[in-house]
What we know:
Structural class: alpha/beta
Amino acid sequence: MNVIDAIFDAARSRPCHVILPEGDDPRVVNAAIEAARLAIARVSVMVSGGAAGEVADKIADAAADVELVIAGDNERMDELVGEYLSLRGKRGVSLENAREQLRDPLTEGAMRVRLGLADGMVAGSVATTAHTVRTALQVLGKAEGVATVSSFFLMAPPAGHHSVASPMIFADCGLLIEPSVAQLADIAIASARSCRLLLGETPRVAMLSFSTAGSAQHPSLDRMRAALALVREREPELEIDGEFQFDSAFDDQIRQRKAPDS
């Protein structure tokens, strides 16, 4: 079973309600219909009033069990505005500001998650990474115990083409431009936890750089080496090593040649 099928099976075993706030994008509507067909989630799609008719027809034609929500104009708005004022009022957000900001589908979607009207939200097909992450932080905040918010890509090598067959988590690729030592350590630890949760596997972590096992010297390498030491101090049971160039981390034979003691 490939990694995507395994994730789908896990999703079916624990059905969740997911809201997609960018329903004016046809790709999002198609994804919602496919998710409903595969029974991997209960899906709500948010659309603007002008797109509602077309999207409703598309969902009906597909006979998909997908809820349609008109962004900024639905029976939940008063409740959402009140909660948003409670959350952001101390930061100078007025009633008028709250109503205006909740016209943003991402903000409304995040508020629906905050109020328990959905289990999660998936966004970013239209909105920028900055807007997506900023909205989530302002409305939902960080998870308990998390100091650094980071991102990752899930990479699944095609079967038969690489020596590594298992999926990999590659981080951080979208948020932190020049992470500090503490942030690098946080990214490594968070990625390892994501590996356990998402893939159900014991993580093996490689700290990536342009150097392998001291082959170069640079201040950025000093940070990476210090981060490696910090991770080992904080998570002594975690299998982690570095610093590696990608080829050394990815291929056992190259790593044995370049860093035989790793």
